[in-house]
Amino acid sequence: MKGLVVQSEQETFLRGRLSAIVDAADDAIVSKELDGTITSWNRAAEKIFGYRADEINGRNIAILIPPDRKDEQARISERILRGESVRHFETLRVRKDGKLINISASISPIKDEDGKIIGVSIIARDITERKEMEERHQAALKELGDLKAALDEHAIVAITTPQGHITFVNDRFCKISKYSREELLGQDHRLINSGHHPKSFIRDLWTTISSGKVWRGEIKNRAKDGSFYWVDTTIVPFLKPDGKPYQYVAIRADITERKNAEEALRRSEMKFARAFANNPSAIALTRLHDGLVFEVNDTWVALCGYTRAEVVGRSARMMWPTSPEAAHFVQVLREHGVVRGWQQEFRKKSGEMFVAELSSQLLNFDGEEMILSTLVDITARKQAEVRSQESERRFRTMANSIPQLAWIARADGFIFWYNQRWYEYTGATPQQVEGWGWQSVHDPQILPQVMSEWKAAIAAGQPFEMEFPLRGADGKFRRFLTRALPIKNAAGRVEQWFGTNTNVDELKRVQHEIEKLNAELEQRVADRTAELQSANKELEAFCYSVSHDLRAPLRHIDGYVNLLQRDSEAVLSPRSRHFMSVIADSARQMGRLIDDLLVFSRMSRCELKRREVRLDALVEDALQKLQPETQDRNIVWALAKLPAVQADESMLRQVVLNLISNAIKYTRPRNPAHIEIGCSSEGPDEVVIFVRDDGVGFDMHYAHKLFGVFQRLHLDEDFEGTGIGLASVRRIISRHGGRTWAEGEIDRGATLYFSIPIRKDRPAG
Amino acid sequence: MRLPKRILLVEDAAKDVELTCAVLEEQKLKHDLVVARDGGEALDYLYRRGKFSARGPGNPDVVLLDIKMPRVNGLEVLQRIKADPQLHSIPVVMLTSSREEKDVKSSYAMGANAYVVKPVNFNEFAEALRAVGAFWVSLNETPPMRD
Known about the structure:
The complex is a heterodimer of chains A (765) and B (147).
Chain A: H1 9-24, E1 28-33, E2 38-41, H2 43-49, H3 53-56, H4 70-81, E3 86-94, E4 100-111, E5 117-126, H5 128-154, E6 156-160, E7 166-169, H6 171-177, H7 181-184, H8 199-210, E8 215-222, E9 228-239, E10 245-254, H9 256-278, E11 282-287, E12 293-296, H10 298-304, H11 308-311, H12 323-336, E13 338-347, E14 353-365, E15 368-377, H13 379-399, E16 405-410, E17 415-418, H14 420-426, H15 430-433, H16 447-460, E18 464-471, E19 477-488, E20 494-503, H17 504-568, H18 574-605, E21 610-614, H19 615-625, H20 627-630, E22 635-639, E23 644-648, H21 649-666, E24 673-682, E25 686-693, H22 725-735, E26 740-745, E27 749-757
Parallel strand pairs in A: 22-24
Antiparallel strand pairs in A: 1-2, 1-5, 3-4, 4-5, 6-7, 6-10, 8-9, 9-10, 11-12, 11-15, 13-14, 14-15, 16-17, 16-20, 18-19, 19-20, 21-23, 24-25, 25-27, 26-27
Chain B: E1 5-10, H1 14-27, E2 31-36, H2 39-47, E3 62-65, H3 74-83, E4 92-96, H4 101-109, E5 114-117, H5 122-139
Parallel strand pairs in B: 1-2, 1-3, 3-4, 4-5
C-alpha cells in the first residue's frame, strides 16, 4: 500500500458523499484513461450497460462501442485531447447482452492540477427509450404526413374554428371553390353557402358537430364565379380534453358529376314515367309466370275499368276469357319473345267484353321475367269490319245477279273475288285469275297501258275507268268498259276496290243500231215533213187561186146585176126585181161561203204560233170590225176583264170574231139584246171563256151538231150563215188543246164556252 | 182651173174594167182614165213605149193596180214603179180581190200607198171606189212632176 494517505476524515466523508452522489445518479458516470481503460463505473452505468463495475473496471471502453462507431472514438478523443468537451453526443453502444442502445454522452477531459489531461470523464444517458419514442414519433409524424398528403390528394379539406372561420384549406378546396387561399383563410365558412339547403339542414349540421359528433351528408356549395358544386361531406370535430371541439375538419369529395348524373337520370326517369302514364295506348307491365301486375298506365285503367290499386299486385289472368287462352298466349310469347297484333277478347271490370289488339314483349328486369304489353281497343274497328264484311257480302250477291262482270280487290289491287259472269265469260278457273292472274285474258298489246292506269288509280285512291278488250272463253276479244270504285274507311284510306266490266261491244252494237234507226227516223220525218210542207204549199196556192178566181165571177155577177138594176129600175116588174135581188144575194152568199171556207182551211193548215194574247184586245178588235152589224142595234154589252192566254193570235182573233158575230146575229130579235163575254173559270190548268147572249137560243138536243161543218140549226131565211163559223172555232180551239161546248135553250139564249189550256212549260213570248 | 187627174187603171178582167168605169162615171169626178190590160201594158204606158209611145209626157196622178194578172202581175208592176226614181213617187193603190195577208204585206213592203180589197158586193165596191176617188183624185196632192 503506497503511502497512503493521511486522509482526513473530511476527505473520506467527501469522497463517500461524492460516491453516493455518483452512485445515486440516473446517468452513467464513467471515467477512463486516455487509452480507454475504464477506471470508474457507477451503478447507473451498470444498469445501462449491463456490466458490473468489477467486471468492467480495467477493461477498455471499446468493448462498448459497436464496430461501425469506432472512428467516432478517435474523433472524440482528438477533441478531448484538445481540451474540448463534447456535450450531448448521441451515439450507439453495445451492452453486455449484445443489445444496442442509444446513449447521449457528455464527454469531458479530466485534468490534473497542472491542467494536464490525464483522463476522460463520460456521463451517458440511455436515450434508447427516448430514441425509440423519437423514432416512433418520427414514424408517426411521417405517417401523418403521408396520410395528409393522401388526403390532400383525394379529398377537399378545410379546417375551421369552432366559430366557423377557415384556418386551413388544401389545394383542392381552392380549386373547387375557385377562391385563392388568401381569399379563404380567416373567412367565415358561410362564404361558400349555395342557399340550396333549408335552414333546418344547416341547423342540424351545426348541432351535430358542436356536440362533438361526426356529421356526414351531401352539400351543394357555391363557387366564387357563382357556379355550383356538390360535395359529399364529413365534418369531424377535433375535441379538447373537455370534450368540446377546438376545430372542425371537413373532408369533402366532389360529387357534382354524380349529382348531375343523378339529376339527369331522375329527369329522364320522370320523362319516361310521364310517357308511360300518358301514353294513349294502354300499357301494362306484368310478371311472366303468373301474370302479376306490376304497373299499368292511365289509359289502361280507363280502358279496363279497374283502378290502379285494384289491379297492381293481382294477376292479369282474370281479364282473359279463359285460362287456356292466356296460357296459350304465354307459350307463344315465350317462343318468340315478341307477339304483335294478337286479337283477343278481354273482360273489363264491369264484366263487359271487348276486343283488343295485344302486343307484348318479353323483358328481363333484374332477373325477373316480365311482359310489357300494349292494348288497343279495336271493338269499334271490329264492328266496322263486320259491317264491311256484310256490305261485301251484299255486293257479291248483287254482283252475281247483274249481267256485267264484277270483282272485288284488296287495297293493293289484288283481286280476290270474281262474280259468276266473270268465270262464265272468260272460261277461267279461280286459281288462274285470282290476284293478278286476270292479266292472262287481256290483249298483250294493250295490257301495259291497263296496268299503268290501274296502278295509278290504286296509288291515288281515285276511281278507275277504262275501256279495253277481254278474251272470252271462245277466244274472241270483246271490248269492255271497266269501272272500279275505291271503298274508303272513315279515315279516308282505301280498304277495297269494287269493280265491274260491261260488255260494250254489245252495247256499242245496240247503240249503233239505235243511231241508225234514229237517222232513218229523222230522214223519214224530214221526208214526211217535206211532203207535208209541199202539200201545204200546194194547198195554199190552190186556196189563194181559188179564192181569187172564185171571187171574180161573183163580183161580176153582183156588179152587173146592180148595173142592170140601175139601168132597168123603171121598167122592171116587182117580180123581176125580186129575181134580180135573189141573184145578187146568191152571189153574195157564195162570196161569204168562199171566205169562210178559206178561213177554215187556213185554220186547219197553218202553223200554230203561240204567244201571249190579250183576249180583251181581241174582243175590242172584233167589236170594231163588227161595227157595221152593231151600229143600228141596241145591244147591252157586259164585258168582263179577260185574262191573257198563250195562243195563236190570228186564230184566236177568228174565234172571238165568230162567237161575237154569232151572238150579235142571233140576238137580232131582241131589243135590247144582252151579250156577255167573260171568263167562267181560271184554274191552274186552263182558262174558260164564254160568250152569252139572250138571243133565240137552240134546242139542246142538237147541241152535238152545233160545231159541225156546214151544220146549221136554223133556217136560212131566219138567220143567214154558212155553218162554218163554229166549226172553225172548234177546229182552232182543238188545235190549241182546248175544248168547245155550248149551252142553250130555245128562245132563252145560248152560252158558248171554249177553254184554252195553260202551258206552264212554255215561257211567255 | 185644176187640170183633170189622170188615173191609170191596171186590170185584166174586162168585166171588172166595165164595172169600174161605170162607177167612176157615176162619180162625176173630173178625170182622165187610162186602162192597161196587164202589167206589161201598164209599164209600156208608164215608160211611154209600145202602144203608148205617142202619149204626152207626165205621170198618172194615181195608179189603181190589180194583182192577179197574166204575164206581168201587179206586184211586179208595183216593184218596177217604186224602184224607178222617175216613177216611184206615183201613188199606187192596190185594188184587188185578194185579201191574202201575204199580198197585203208584200204590197206595203214594196211601197204601195194603199191597199183596197174589191168587195164582192157591188154596192160596197162602188162605195170603196168612191172613197178612193174622193181621196186620191180630189183631195190628195200629187207629187210634182220631175223634169
